[in-house]
Amino acid sequence: MKPTLLVLCAIITSPLGWVYAHESTDHMTLGEVLRESKWDRLIGTWVDAETKGDALKSTFAWKFKDHLVQITTWDSEKESFSLMGRNPKSGDIFHMSAGSTGDSSIGKWELTKSEAILGLLFVTGKGEEGALRIRHQLQGDDTMLVIIDLPEPITIKMIRIKKGDYSYRTKGKLDWKAIKTRIESAVQRGDLTRKEADEKYRQIKDLQLKHVPVKSKD
Question: Distance between CA atoms of 3 and 79, rounded to whole angstroms?
Fold first, then answer.
């Protein structure tokens, strides 16, 4: 599955709160809005269920705890970086994004109990402008449907990758190059702290030593 611009826009954007047309008086932080609305479950790494992330992967991590979410999205053609936060005066939950091909987007969210609706404006790297209406639906804690409203809607099923969900073996042998790449990428995305990464290295080395045959002295 080769991701289109519409698919990518769906993955790099996510429901992060209510949109208010009036001045906000609650002075809630983004984190408080997320927790109250149950959308704090969005934090983490998500991949498309069809290819398990070979086509699309998106990581949501706190840049500034409770105030700003950093989103990094990878696909087969580009990488995108997004920021989401809450305007403390208006209460708007905003989205700003830029991609490695020169594209950019801005948007706002409206959150309901059943879904989050995003109105998005984007500009491609070639200067083409457009607008999208994207709906998000959580199905439990680890599955999310992203639906792009078109004459023929596009639906993408996303699943959560949990910490430590890595494959380290190639043809039955430990692939240390792959191990380092996966762990360091996890640190960069915010899935693992440096301390957790060092512990992961230690555990894997211990596992390898336990499987090394002991030669007889005879």
Answer: 12
Task: Say if residue 141 is in the same domain as residue 36.
Answer: yes
Q: How far apart are CA 10 and CA 154, in angstroms?
A: 9
Are residue 53 and residue 141 in the same domain, yes or no? yes
Amino acid identity for residue 3 in this structure: P
Q: How far apart are CA 69 and CA 139, in angstroms?
A: 22
Q: Are 9 and 69 in a shared domain?
A: yes
Question: Amino acid letter at 189?
Answer: R
> pLDDT digits over 204-214, tens only?
776 554 443 33
**In this structure, are 65 and 55 located in the same domain?**
yes
* Contact of 160 with 45, CB cutoff 8 Å: yes
Asked if residue 114 belongs to a domain, the reply is yes
If asked whether residues 149 and 168 sit together in one domain, one would say no
99 CB-near residues (< 8 Å, 6+ apart): 8, 12, 78, 79, 80, 81, 125
Task: Supply the CATH number for residue 85's domain.
Answer: 2.40.128
- For residue 218, is it within any domain? no
Burial level of 101, CB count in 10 A (0-12/13-18/19+)?
Answer: middle
Structure tokens that stand for 56 in this block: 């699309």
User: pLDDT tens across 57-70, in order?
Assistant: 888 899 999 999 99
pLDDT tens-digit map of 154-180:
998 999 987 655 443 333 445 566 677
CB-based contacts of 196: which residues, under 8 Å, 6+ apart? 163
- What phi, psi does 205 have (nearest 5°)? -65, -40
**pTM: predicted TM-score of the whole model, two decimal places:** 0.65
Count other Cβ atoms within 10 Å, centred on residue 4: 13
